[in-house]
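Tokens in:
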């Protein structure tokens, strides 16, 4: 087994999931890269989380912020969770107003890899989205343009590819797409809305949209949208930004060209050839050279960092007490799941590590890896013991390998080597040597997760 294969699979699992342990990487590498990609793209091949067990221990409906992190850590369908996180960012909906965001996340799990027409149709009927963007107030004679505007600007085509006239007519097409009044949420906490189409509230007049004319309803508007090359390019750039490398913020896309135009063009072709199927676009993406060569070109989001660190240390593989602290951790780092700051979602890339957020990220990771008894940390120490005695340089390299594999700058490696040199070779011969070496290994891991390089996926 070549170390380059392990590193490539690790890269894939960071991007298509939330990381993998060394033993998991070795097993996946024996399967082969393209086969792993196909397994990721077909999550139905693997069993889902046992929600009845999770619900029993969490005591509330499975799907809250902490429970989502539990899924990120434990799901055997990592791309399903990662794609749900992707669409949650693109179709940003906050539970401060919309109470059924958990159902929306479930919807992204079910259809996040399907074609864009199905995704946008389900989104337009999603009670959380209908309420979030006020389409329940969009009625014949008094249209509300909020959803029609964001559908074009943020969900499909991007600024500069439609007119105000198109927004107004899209809004008319979605009149009557509303939700039922829920049973009061208290005291049972079961209040829920359902999508309903009210024909008498629908504007059935002639409409013109993106050069097409007809008595359009919402589905026909979506049909026109998904056929536009602008839509293919907008979704392709979103996928590149989330799965490949950091782009400028979405608000700048009209002015700033893509970081890799050829890569975006390849994803556009995959979109057009597959009638907008996300699975086909991601297959092209994960198997491409531009993806394989983009290691550590994205800053991890708080959710990615937290889930990845928890996977590394091997805890919370069962819904144990304490999992609730992780949603608070992502919030302290700037990402409160199910409560994005605006309809634009979160600002990504280096903005994740501005100011105090970097301190929160480092403190979290250092605290998590600081216990030699945690299963993942213990497994790393065991592997170091198997290879001992280890001279300082090899001690550094093996820890970087087992914690990633992680690539670091020369100045970072020099700092790690300085610490390793201070204790001499790593030995596990006697009981006292083993205790001392375990402490040194933990400290080395803490230094590694506090590096700037560890912040990148």
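Residues out:
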């Amino acid at each position: 087994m070549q170390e380059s294969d392990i590193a490539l699979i690790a890269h894939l699992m960071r991007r298509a999931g939330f990381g993998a342990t060394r033993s998991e990487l070795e097993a996946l590498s024996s399967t082969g890269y393209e086969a792993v990609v196909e397994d990721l793209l077909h999550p139905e091949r693997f069993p889902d989380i046992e929600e009845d067990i999770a619900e029993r221990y969490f005591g509330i409906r499975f799907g809250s912020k902490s429970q989502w992190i539990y899924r990120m850590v434990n799901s055997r369908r990592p791309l399903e969770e990662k794609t749900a996180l992707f669409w949650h960012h693109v179709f940003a909906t906050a539970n401060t107003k919309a109470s059924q965001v958990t159902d929306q996340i479930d919807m992204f799990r079910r259809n996040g890899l399907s074609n864009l027409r199905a995704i946008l149709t389900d989104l337009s009927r999603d009670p959380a989205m209908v309420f979030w963007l006020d389409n329940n107030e969009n009625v014949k004679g008094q249209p509300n343009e909020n959803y029609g505007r964001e559908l074009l600007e943020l969900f499909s085509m991007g600024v500069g590819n439609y007119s105000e006239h198109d927004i107004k007519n899209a809004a008319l097409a979605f009149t009557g797409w509303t939700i039922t009044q829920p049973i009061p949420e208290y005291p049972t906490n079961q209040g829920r809305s359902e999508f309903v189409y009210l024909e008498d509230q629908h504007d059935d007049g002639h409409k013109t949209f993106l050069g097409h004319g007809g008595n359009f309803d919402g589905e026909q508007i979506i049909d026109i949208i998904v056929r536009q090359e602008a839509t293919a390019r907008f979704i392709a750039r979103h996928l590149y930004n989330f799965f490949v490398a950091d782009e400028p913020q979405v608000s700048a896309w009209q002015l700033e060209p893509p970081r890799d135009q050829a890569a975006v063009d390849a994803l556009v072709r995959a979109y057009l050839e597959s009638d907008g199927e996300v699975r086909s676009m991601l297959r092209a993406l994960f198997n491409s050279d531009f993806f394989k060569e983009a290691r550590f070109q994205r800053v991890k989001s708080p959710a990615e960092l937290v889930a990845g660190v928890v996977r590394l240390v091997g805890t919370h593989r069962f819904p144990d007490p304490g999992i609730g602290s992780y949603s608070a951790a992502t919030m302290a780092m700037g990402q409160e799941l199910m409560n994005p700051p605006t309809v634009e979602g979160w600002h990504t890339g280096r903005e994740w590590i501005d100011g105090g957020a970097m301190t929160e990220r480092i403190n979290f990771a250092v605290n998590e890896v600081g216990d030699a008894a945690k299963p993942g940390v213990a497994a790393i120490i065991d592997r170091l013991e198997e290879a001992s005695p280890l001279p300082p340089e090899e001690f550094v390299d093996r820890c970087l390998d087992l914690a990633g594999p992680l690539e670091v700058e020369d100045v970072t490696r020099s700092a790690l080597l300085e610490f390793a040199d201070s204790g001499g070779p790593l030995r596990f011969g006697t009981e006292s040597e083993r205790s001392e070496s375990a402490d040194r290994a933990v400290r080395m891991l803490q230094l590694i997760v506090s590096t700037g390089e560890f912040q990148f996926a």
